[in-house]
Amino acid sequence: MTLKLLLSASGMTNELAEVVSLNPVQFWGIPLALVGAALLSFGAQYQSRGLNKVERIVGLSAGSGLSFRHVLSLMRRPSWLVGTVLLGLAVMFQIGSLSLAPLIVVQPIGVFALVITAVLNTRYSGVRLGKRVKGSIAMCVGGIMLFVFVAAFTASDRPVTNQKLITILLIFAVVLAVALVSFVLLRHKSVALVYIVGAGVLYGFVATFAKTVIGRFQQDQFDWLTWVCVVALLLGALLGMVFVQNAYSSGPPDLVIAGLTVIDPLVAVLIGIVVLNEAAGAPIWAVVVFIVTGVIALIGVLGLAKFHPQSGHSALESGESRTTS
Fold first, then answer.
1. 144 is in which domain, residue-wise?
2. Are 247 and 122 in contact (CB under 8 A)?
3. Residue with more model confidence, 19 or 87
4. Which residues have CB under 8 Å from 288's CB, separation 6+?
């Protein structure tokens, strides 16, 4: 009996080692993802600052949609331009990390951007975060990290066949249509959570398409289906950016980043589980953990939206005037 237990434990150890062991090249994907998370935090802070400044200059909230005057003013606002450059660099570092390491390893690292953004926004705005807000942040970070940790030990990497890729594209087409309809119907409601959830879902697909395109490029499979993925990636990124800009007007940067860094990896991992069958051999307890931790992370996002002192207030309503950039 003891021998069987030892053999079983030895086999489990070997399986875990195969999952978590990275070669020296793959290891560099982790620090690249960390740098990308930091750039994402600073970029979000600067873009939010620039948009709030533009709202005061134009005298019109952008929560109900960016107007042409908003866009022109943003192009002349140094803080927003700096934030855009930083976000562009964050995307480059993320693509670099995805090209080196598995999606399930590097994508969740972006959740650390939430902690950095919360600290930055507190110092910039002077708004102190209460216990319920800090608890919501802890739920976001803890839930998503545990979710992906269990997924990493129970999921197996499977090739993305043409059939599976077509399925993902069809699902994305439905998501894109729903996002567009939601934006048209709710763009005058100034509901930050709607924009944040929409952006998180879209960027989850964007990350999946980015990993797929990188993998096909590395395998010299740049066919017509790959080009469709590139188009879908660009459409998702563009609409997601519009959602994010509108979210900045009616929600604080840390709430926006929470939605992106929690919903984004959840969507990406769920695509891997449901469509790619990466968790086909996962035990029942792992499925339970997926559901529980996913719900915890989402409750954290809802808690931030409900309890954050800056939620639902634009720069016009809060009367902030600390920045001149």
1. 10-318
2. no
3. 87
4. none
Whether residue 66 contacts residue 47, with contact meaning beta carbons closer than 8 Å, is answered with no
232, HSE (Cβ side, Cα atoms, 13 Å): 30
Q: The whole model's pTM is what? A: 0.74
d(CA 241, CA 195): 10
Residue 323 in any domain: the answer is: no
Structure-token pair, residue 20: 């978590």
- Is the Cβ–Cβ distance between 299 and 147 less than 8 Å? no
Q: What are 109's two structure tokens? A: 């690292």
Structural domain includes residue 248: yes
Tell whether the model's pLDDT for residue 243 goes beyond 90: no
> Residue 5 falls within a domain, yes or no?
no
SS3 label, residue 177 = helix
CA distance 15 to 12: 5
Residues 6+ apart with CB under 8 A from 180: 239
Which amino acid, one-letter code, is at 102?
P
**Among the listed residues 164, 157, 262, the one whose alpha carbon sits nearest the alpha carbon of residue 209:** 164
